[in-house]
């Protein structure tokens, strides 16, 4: 019985191949959740459930793929009416913070283990970031749109499926490093949790 | 950007309003015993005085401010009785003219009247670029208090406090008292001792 279990396990493990083969192309579609950290929590400390990513990757080797990733995340928080005071001046307002980030980055992905049902991987993306910052005092807005830098390290698990096991599901955790300075904003760093699919799109 | 939560759609009329107060930190408000308040509101548009008016809403604001000061220990007098404080109220409007381009206007036509309706099936609509001109206007309410007690000593009528209300629904009768209350609530120093 024990010998049969071992044989079955070995067959299952060897049935799964790497998510990227040299020369293969794949598209990743992710749903992302953003969790503000550091100074970003001064603007909003609410987790954002409005985000997504699309990536196009090309297999350089069986374990390494390179490509382009575009993302979007919307952060929003409305604070109850408060009075903000300075010497000689008081402002009573309902303040709303609204921040959108659109990182456009080059991405490198490394499959740590190309075999098995669960395939851990690490990736690093870096590039530009379109930032839209709005702070509302009642219905009156103070806003800025700018282009900055973004970097995203990531660790994840890929679960292959489909013909040849070239496509798959994945879950991952990452961190977005996004410098941004304007008024009371000093950095938009946030943790990222993502889940999605990777689909082979070879010709 | 799509997929974003629109802040303006998530505000009530009350939440849209902001209350701003400025005050002279050197003023001794506890020393102002009496006040006189104007009997009509100045109507100002783009920094130009248009007229003085006393609508029912204006009268409501005047009464609400007078009542708030009286509740804080100040005594209302006529301006002939040498009041310590002079109080004025203004409706301040700014109107701007803007140009908008309707570049995408024609793109929606196919969804409502396709070309087959006009017996020209398969033809595309063409729209030249349309420009529209529109005016936008915003009106705020201003309340100003002047130090009349020390005017001759200072050789000037010095503003010691101003309150501003901006946003939606300012001139709804049902909001007047609450708005004046809000301005005075964030000004606890404004009382005669």
Sheet bearing the most strands of chain B, described? 8 strands, mixed
End-to-end distance of chain A, in Å? 45 Å
Shape of chain A: elongated
Strand content of chain A: over 45%
Helical amount of chain A = under 10%
Distinct helical segment count of chain A: 1
Query: Residue-averaged pLDDT of chain A, rounded?
Result: 89
Overall geometric form of chain B: elongated
Assembly type of the chains comes to: heterodimer
Strand content of chain B: 25-35%
Structure overview:
The complex is a heterodimer of chains A (203) and B (193). Chain A is mostly beta strands and 203 residues long. Chain A has a single domain (2-200), classed as Porin (Beta Barrel), CATH 2.40.160. Chain A is built from one helix and twelve strands; from the N terminus they run αββββββββββββ. In chain A, the strands form three sheets. In chain A, strands 1-2-3-6-7-8-9-12 form an eight-stranded antiparallel barrel. A two-stranded antiparallel sheet of chain A has the order 4-5. Chain A is elongated, with a radius of gyration of 21 Å. Residues 1-18 of chain A have low confidence and may be disordered. Chain B contains five helices and eight strands. The N and C termini of chain B lie far apart (54 Å). In chain B, strands 1, 2, 3, 4, 5, 6, 7 and 8 form an eight-stranded mixed β-sheet that branches. Chain B has a domain at 17-94 and 137-185: 2-Layer Sandwich (Double Stranded RNA Binding Domain), CATH 3.30.160.670. The mean pLDDT of chain B is 85. In chain B, helix 2 packs parallel to helix 5 (176-185). Chain B is α/β, with parallel strands linked by helices. Chain B has helices spanning 13-16, 56-71, 109-112, 151-154, 176-185; strands spanning 18-23, 34-37, 41-45, 48-53, 75-76, 85-101, 131-147, 158-166. The interface between A and B is medium-sized, with 29 and 25 residues.
